[in-house]
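Regression test attached.
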Amino acid sequence: MNHNQQPGDGTHEDDAALSDFLASLMDYTPTIPDELVEHYLAKSGFQCPDVRLIRLVAVATQKFVAEVATDALQCNLECNYKVLKERHKGSSRSWQCKARQAAVVKDKRDKQQKDKRLILTMEDLSRALREHGVNVKHQEYFADSPSTGMDPASRDE
Amino acid sequence: MKSKLRKEAKTQSSTATTTTTSTPSELSFAIARIAVSQICQSVGFKATQLSALETLTLVATKYLQAIAGSATSFTNSSNRTQSNLLDLTNALHEVVSLHSGGLSGGSILHRPTSTLLSTSGVLKDLANFVYFHDEIPFAKPIPRPDRTSSSGNSSPGTKKLDCTRGSHVPKWLPGFPNGNNGVDEIYLGKGKRKNGESLWEESVLVGSDLGRKNWNENGRKRVAGEGKVETGRGKVRFKMGSMSGVCRLENNKNNLNDRSNGIDKEEKILVYKRRRRRRDDGGRLINL
């Protein structure tokens, strides 16, 4: 008897919690506007008259973007921390963030100023997205022709 | 390459956002870019590379479409067109588990004793996110298309169809042909096509009694012999042999009197009769 009653009571509480959560969605305004979400949902064939579900999708997307941005920020802070750590130690070699080492060597003043100002870069973003299953590769540079930058002796002309 | 993030939406300059968007996709992408930049600013970033921002915006839009497509497929596999919370929860479990390495509660979601919020880890995470994070309203107002003025898009015929078709027909489907009574007209054969084509049921099955009482109600009367083929055709009969199973030809002398056309009386006709068979006590078939 008790086993039959407990899930019944539990479902009532969970239903109340679920309805409270959905009601709180109406109070919470997601950053992604409802019109934009409706546009992309209609593009994919999602049909639902309930506004709460649209807000749920918007909140899920916002949470995903926030997670990726947080991971990128963490990666940025870790690299800066390691660079600063290497500075204090005085060692010239660093087994991570070699690209930033070159910038540090050039202008220390500018780098100190820029450390306070956090910048979202493609490197951090690609590293953060790789943890979430998205592979992003960014071109380092674009050349005019395939033989640009090669030695004149090795060019096939 | 680098662009500053907007700290306050009201004080931002309008020069950065006055890129004329010609297509709706560009407009939606621009709106999404603003929203993503606001989220990045809330996390703590002060500036971003333009390529990084556009990449993150693209990933966010594809994530949104992935959730929607997954939810739609769950809905369609349940013979529905309108999605509900369970479809969306399943879709979120499917998509979120890809990038977070698995979530709790996905396998026991369909138990009758369990409820969505108690077993779904995704909904719990989203509830915590909503509870702990402050809301960030969108920076700029979005111009909404004026739907009341676009009367040219919807023809007056569609409005009539919405109320007469019934609730079982979705509104997004196009209207029935031949006006409001398209359903009845298809069966009655009133809506004939331009080239004189008509449904084959009308020409072949008119004589058969298939329970179509509407014909008599609408004034169409059945004429005797209406369903029969007008041109005289030779009847073909096949008669199976008694023991050897050989088909024999039989002269159809009985039907020759009914014919009005002058057909050669000695014409041989194949006759096929179905014999009545009976089973004996042992279950064997006996030919009568």
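Expected vs. actual: identical. Chain B touches chain A through 66 residues (CB under 8 Å).
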